[in-house]
Amino acid sequence: MVLGSLSCDKCKKGRYRGQSTQGSKAKVWGWEQSCQACPSGKYSNQEGLATCDDCAKGKYQTSCEAGSSDGFAGYAGCRQCKNCPKGWYQDGNAQDDCKHCAIGTYNDLTAQKQSSSCKACPNGYSAGSTGSPSCDACIPGQLTTTSGAFSDKKQCYNCPAGFSAVNHGSTSCAGCGSGKISGAGESSCSSCTAGRTPNSDSTACVDCTSGKFESNNVCQDCPEGNLII
Q1: Which helix (H) or strand (E) holds 174?
Q2: Which of these, 212, 128, 137, 132, lies nearest to 169 by C-alpha position?
Q3: Rg of the Cα atoms in the chain
Q4: pLDDT class for 193, splitting at 50, 70, 90?
Q5: Is residue 66 part of a domain?
Q6: Distance CA 78, CA 72 (A)
Q7: I need a labelling partner for 182 at 20 to 30 A (CA). Which of 76, 104, 139, 199 fits?
């Protein structure tokens, strides 16, 4: 539009009527008023805006240099906001970053708007870092559970000595059977060698005491008239 010495040019998309010395110009009575790139957390997908629009919840934006994927080829300014990635969320408007899900939780969707989108890992799984898009299955010999000492899902926990878990993603540990033992975090129980039997909590093998011998994983008295050799 031109009226005598008055002329106006619309600010380009991604920019607004600011005070920067760079970028497209809006001229009023021959005095150049520069347009400015939208600040962090904001964007513009229309021409001629006095202000930029806020990024909505679940989205964010930092800044867009010329040629960036969210900007334009010839000048700086953001034309759109980014979705928060999996493992993150944003519950506020006009933000330049997203908030991460806590350790032990995950979020497998993008553009999430609230902290409740971060869900606790299921039993048998854990998430050992913030911003997790998924949970990892516990390895054999480890577990997580719904309640108790193994329930926070920040890590997988060893089965106690005398117990084992054979599968990935275990939610419980099984006690060692007759004549077998295990240490902590083992995927299976092992048999005692001949002449030895498990102790009372199946955590170690012990020798039969003098005058006894091992039979079927039990130390038994030697019958009269017999000698242990």
Answers
A1: strand 174-175
A2: 137
A3: 34
A4: confident
A5: yes
A6: 8
A7: 104
